[in-house]
Structure formats: structure tokens, C-alpha cells
Amino acid sequence: MPQPHHMVITGAGRGIGRALAEQATARGARVVLCARSAHELAEVTETLRQRHGAQCAHPVVCDVGSTDEVQHMHDEAARFFEGPVTTVVNNAGIVRRGLIHETDDALWSDTLNVNLTGAFRVSRAFLPQMRAAHRGRVLFVSSISATLGSPTASAYCASKWALVGLMKTLAEENRAHGVQSMAVLPGSVDTQMLVGSGFAPAMTADDVAKTLAFLAFDAPDAMTSSAIEVFG
Ligand SMILES: NC(=O)c1ccc[n+]([C@@H]2O[C@H](COP(=O)([O-])OP(=O)(O)OC[C@H]3O[C@@H](n4cnc5c(N)ncnc54)[C@H](OP(=O)(O)O)[C@@H]3O)[C@@H](O)[C@H]2O)c1
Predict the structure, then answer these.
(1) Candidates 3.10.20.30, 3.90.550.10, 3.40.50.720, 3.30.540.10; correct CATH number of 6-230?
(2) Where are the alpha helices (DSSP H) in 82-153?
(3) Are 13 and 41 within 8 A, CB to CB?
(4) Cα separation of 211 and 13, whole Å?
């Protein structure tokens, strides 16, 4: 009998996270949806439940910048799934712009706290149950900015390069414990984040979500530690 898929998606209120939630529930996964905006989470949850039933999705308002809120989200997920999480998707992210010599400490630390430390916090919270179950995948939404420099986005760029290091370390530490880890590095995607960036979209949120769904459902364990570019 196939094992159930229990997926936690951060940044699931819109954009790439929402597109993944739609694809994952269509494939029979149950999902915990995390973001700060309650109204966006409520709207996604309602849409998914109408399509796939009341038990397919559970919204948890959670700022991944807060260890306490991530712990609360972990506890809510444990109650909802009544079993171990199988996939964690670290997708929540922000971008704030400014030249390096005009970037203040708050812009720098807020960006790192959400994009990098947030992904660390969420991974840390769910890893023990995955290791105990000897099954799990931790996915990271990095960026093509993790392969190049991106003017006016130093903190964002640094956070996305660092995510690849976190992903690869997580893959090595958990290789013998049945837990795999991969990252997706998208180019410009037609989401709210791209608005005002000056970049034209090269792909849809669905394109990136398809790649994440492949890594969550289909990819062989041997792909652990892979950083997949989806450049458009
Ligand atoms: N769009 C692109 O061109 C592009 C390219 C490469 C990589 N990416 C990456 O893709 C990921 C998803 O972005 P997107 O393009 O889908 O942008 P988006 O539409 O702005 O979605 C971002 C999601 O993250 C959530 N979020 C932001 N800060 C959070 C926090 N502190 N705690 C919890 N959730 C938080 C947002 O909800 P709330 O604001 O309600 O919290 C929202 O649901 C990001 O990591 C981004 O860096 C995007």
C-alpha cells in the first residue's frame, strides 16, 4: 500500500507555494500551509478543500522568522497529520532592494532571518520525526541568484547562495537516515515578488511547482544534494 504524503509548505498563500499546494493535493497529498497573511491562507485552503475534501489542507499562520511560531506550526502539523511529515518545502522568501553601501542592518538581517534562518528553523523542527521514520524530503526554493550576483539584492542573493550550503549539509547529515534534500533555483517567475523588479517573467509559478512536485514525489533518492536550475 502506498505511504501517505504529508507535506508542509512555507510561503503557501500565493505564488510558487500556492501552485505547489494545488499540484500536491491533486496528487493526493495532505498539506499544511504556512504564511503570515491569514486571509490568503484561508482563500487557498478553501479552494483546495472544495476540490479535494475537508482533510486535504490545514492553514497555520506562521512567521518563519520566529522560532516560537515555527514550533507552533510544527505542533499543529503533528496534530493535523497524525503521523510524520514526509516533505518539508522551504519556500517562504522576501526581497528588499538597495545598493550594498545603502543597505542598513535591518534590511540585511530581516532578509537573512526569513530566507535563510527561517528555512533552517523549519528544517530543524521537522527533521527528528523524519529521521525517526527513516523517510522524508526537505526541499528548498533558492534562486538563480544563487549562481550569480544580483545588483541591489545583496542580502537576498547571499541568503539564496547560503540556502544551497544548508541544503547540501542537510543532505549529507541525513543520507544514512532515509532523508533526502534538494533545492530548486528558479529564474524570474510571474509572482508578486517579481513586480517592480524590472525583470520580465521567464516562467509561471506552475513551472516551478512542477519541478518541486517532481522532487517531492518522483525523484530517486540518488538525487539528494541536487541544486536544480529552472531558468526559463
Ligand atoms: N518570483 C521570482 O522571480 C522568484 C525567483 C527565484 C526564486 N524565488 C523564490 O520563490 C519563493 C516564493 O516566492 P514567490 O515568487 O512565490 O513570491 P510571493 O508571491 O511573494 O510569495 C511569497 C510567499 O512567502 C510568504 N512569506 C514571506 N515572508 C514570510 C515569513 N516571514 N513567514 C512565512 N511566510 C512568509 C508570503 O506570505 P506572507 O507575506 O503572507 O507571509 C507568500 O506566501 C521565494 O523564496 C523566492 O525567493 C522567486
Answers:
(1) 3.40.50.720
(2) 105-112, 118-133
(3) yes
(4) 19
Give the distance (Å) from ligand 1 centre to CA of residue 91.
6
Report the distance separating Cα 212 and Cα 125, nearest Å.
21
CB 111 within 8 A of CB 155: yes
**Whole-model pTM over 0.70:** yes
Q: Is the pLDDT of residue 153 over 90?
A: yes
Nearest alpha carbon, ligand 1 atom 37:
35
- The HSE-up count of residue 34 (CA atoms within 13 Å, CB side) is 29
Cell numbers at residue 17, please?
507555494
Give the model confidence (pLDDT) of 14-26 as tens digits.
999 999 999 999 9
Please give the Cα distance from 207 to 38 (Å, whole number).
25
Query: Rounded CA gap, 81 and 33, in Å?
Result: 12
Instruction: State the distance between the two ends of the chain, measured CA to CA, in whole angstroms.
Output: 37
Give the active site residue among 59, 156, 163, 205.
156
Burial status of residue 175 (CB atoms within 10 A of its CB: 0-12, 13-18, 19 or more) = middle
Question: Does residue 156 carry a catalytic annotation?
Answer: yes
33: number of Cβ within 10 Å: 29
